[in-house]
């Protein structure tokens, strides 16, 4: 135990003794409890702990406790969904689960389950928004084995495919159930409102983000973020500290330190008020949340705002509890949270669950109470009572050894000083009614509080328009769009896929395609964007393997994009610009994904036959092609003629850029230079017609003038 | 798993069990430290001194729950629990004498309104409106005398933590933790609220928080809704048949006098058990208990539930169409906690449906991927009387409830036909021991267990027989008991089917 900690705890106890003597004096009332004298609180036998930093950077906090033959261990790691890519939302959570369920290099997941359950021990892992971790609980007699299992889970997970699939299935079921409980709808939607829906903590997993997660993603995520120098380990229980350190060192031997720094946390803007209703039929009760961005714990008014929150909505003594629940009987529960965080700013929030018919009333009452906190001084009684409540109950923050050590680890992880608690306690003690008002005036902005009501708006006592423009939140769960349910590939299916592709190749032109150097095609394309009917002209010239020119004539001007070997450029209405970086790669992919290229290269591409299906009334052979770019292509060939009927890929919506299922339907085939060309093309986005085109020209091995692909 | 690995794991398991046998801890010695005394009114106290941190936890266990309610007052045990936070003749009032008159007027306004409402369609809307206004006005008058939430504030401001209460089918529990120098304040607060409670703000609490709790937990929760339907069907005679929260119509019509009557009947000394665990001394607890808890009436005669659920003659089913995802619940009647096979029920529930290696999880979730979750537990909705082995499953997306239901029953058929293995049973025994040892550590959990065992079995020492009882269970016991309970005619099934949108 450090000196600082001892001092903090002693101070805390003294406070507990001195402050509570003050009771609201109420003339004429008999209050027998005010005459009690409280003895000095007994001294805490402070947990002796040892802090050890291992050579690999792992930090251990150990406290021996021999009362029962058990040990408990908890690990905290700097990892979280805050680091997962936007298109893979859910990756962190799934990694945290399969870490434990998916086995290790020595044992599969089921063997680990069996070993642990037969010891009556448990080891669990998790990854949350801001941190990840593990915990272990075992009888002393089994602790060596349990520790060994934990270490392998952290350092050498197997990430077995079947457990990943299981986890994915469960997450998908979770998505389908996410609107069942109104309070979870409220929490989820409010986080989006307060952080912005693209913030990694606010993002929500969807069928498609979950569906795109592969084993490689888990392996990479683990190897990127799981390192000993990012981990703190708290061990409490029936062991000898020196022996335990040696055992931990041995168990985690060979685990490598991180080599790259962690990304910075994204900023959270201060959003203006929005008023939101998430309608769910059949609800008789509304879940209401009000909130805006809060502060980090290193803010100078941290202690004052904690006191203010205690007065507003922290427990039985609070104004919200009295006004909303007790006096008006509007709610079973009502609360507020200070919105402070150790790592990042939290969200200042107030919540209430009330019957739908009193939704607007409850919001008005809560807003009024928050407003009053920012305009009037609180009473001295309220202040004393809140301070008493905070300081007296803090003794329970330290009533187990694990809690004390956990707090120390939090301070160390986020760079707070050792005496943070001591300073904070002192500030709470010294807080005045003026401090509370100054803090709420600086940090609480009633007119910026966003509002969310989840309930049945038909039953509401108002349309909430009095609070601002009302935004209806659609909580409909998006159907999976971009994934196909593909059976596991087998040698037979791969061979069958090649056979279909070869049949297509032969039917479409055979050697005429295989032997061509390139082609030129011209088409016109009619499409509708935001109600405007537009006609585009498109010319595409390809010379294998890496030259291409795309010229588009649009009502807004013409545009040319060209790939000239390993350089690329574009001619836009704004002038000629170089195309660089990843964009060059995507032009090259345009060539590789071109149907004739795929037919030519089919032998080198993964082509898996899947079930026959009817497409537009035509029975088709279907082939699932992967390995070109990161997405798949699904080809459907007429089972009789072997001509291409449909091509399905991932596309992007022209206006929003949101991912869509893009299907291109080919028909009206004609032969140009010995090659079958579909003269009519229809493009569907999410099964709705997006564009229709007609091919005007197709030339095999076109004459290419010198400098045709070069930048002008 | 590959053959050689299986062998390794088996050897390993053998070693682990041996190790377990050798180093049994001294945790059983803890029972020598538990002290007890009984007040003249019958309240039984248990005290465990633990002086390492200056805090203590207590549990007040009242041996009354929703099982003791009758039709018309369902939900009253829970309402009474809420009212126990409303203060006493001193706490939370500016003057009880005047307040009592105001509460009487409030009650009379409620009766008048209730009588008119009970006329149903014949109720006169104009009269109703007037009576409602009178009732609101009477509540406003009574509210003038209330010091809002004084009880909770006293606890919180003196460092009390984790203050709450729970009402179940079998019992009502009150609990919180306090800094140890506040022992006298605690004894005063707890003793007087149990002996001289005043049910002020009765109608505001009942029509507000209690009603909202019912909406949240039952009407707006697919699980809660199904659970209520399920219970109503599973028990046709025994009072386990209604849910603890009570029917909405009963909540609406219960009066303060109903609540006082229920309190008078059940809150008597010999129906109380109190445990105090933490930084306290027996002598002081005894002195304060005598001083502040002696006014609780008692001892007295407690009513006995004579009704026995008749043997079920055939499967009962209900299918609820809802726009939420499907849920399946199935319950099998079985004996209560005094039944000699009590530990066998626990073993069956553990092997069949608890944890990652349980049969239901392994087969339905892991292997066949039919469910997102599947499991079972013993002792629903309570344990005191013969109750249910409850089985639940949440189907995976696009898997029908029929398919999941069939798979559930197939697992129980297998259990009946083949029993369980020695390894499975050894696992249950080790887990029970480990969980038991872990449960001894926390003050609050310890207080809760002491009370429950003392109240339900008459001796808290039975808590320390948990391990011994499970050790005695054999594979033959499991097979015999499984064959007794997993019978189609003994089954009640409740299902939520997803309603197709139009």
Q: Which labels suit this protein?
A:
heterodimer, A: 712 residues, alpha+beta, Cytochrome Bc1 Complex, Chain A, domain 1, outer membrane lipoprotein receptor (LolB), chain A, six-stranded mixed β-sheet, 20 helices, B: 502 residues, 11 strands, 48% helix, globular
**Main structural class of chain B:** alpha+beta
Summed up, the domain count of chain A is: 3
Number of strands of chain A: 27
CATH superfamily of the largest domain in chain A: Lipoprotein localisation LolA/LolB/LppX
User: Could you name the CATH class of the largest domain in chain A?
Assistant: Mainly Beta
The CA-CA distance between the termini of chain A, in Å, is 74 Å
Break the fold down into its secondary structure elements and pairings:
The complex is a heterodimer of chains A (712) and B (502).
Chain A lengths: L2 H17 L30 E4 L5 E6 L5 E8 L13 H11 L7 H11 L2 E6 L4 E8 L3 H13 L5 H16 L5 H14 L11 H5 L3 H11 L5 E7 L3 H11 L23 E5 L5 E9 L1 E2 L5 H12 L5 H9 L3 E7 L2 E2 L5 E9 L3 H17 L4 H14 L7 H13 L6 H11 L2 H11 L6 E6 L14 E4 L17 H18 L2 H4 L3 E12 L2 E12 L3 E8 L2 E8 L2 E6 L2 E5 L2 H12 L1 H7 L4 E10 L2 E9 L6 E6 L5 E9 L6 E14 L2 E11 L2 E13 L12
Parallel strand pairs in A: 2-6, 7-13, 7-14, 9-11
Antiparallel strand pairs in A: 1-2, 3-5, 3-6, 4-5, 8-12, 8-13, 10-12, 15-16, 15-27, 16-17, 17-18, 18-19, 19-20, 21-22, 22-23, 23-24, 24-25, 25-26, 26-27
Helix pairs in contact in A: 1-13, 1-15, 2-5, 2-8, 10-13, 10-15, 10-16, 11-12
Chain B lengths: L2 H20 L11 E5 L5 E6 L5 E8 L13 H8 L12 H22 L7 H19 L6 H8 L3 E7 L4 E8 L3 H13 L6 H18 L2 H13 L13 H6 L2 H11 L5 E7 L3 H12 L22 E7 L4 E8 L7 H12 L5 H9 L3 E10 L6 E9 L5 H18 L3 H18 L3 H15 L8 H6 L3 H11 L5 E8 L4
Helix pairs in contact in B: 2-7, 2-10, 3-4, 6-11, 12-18, 13-14, 14-18
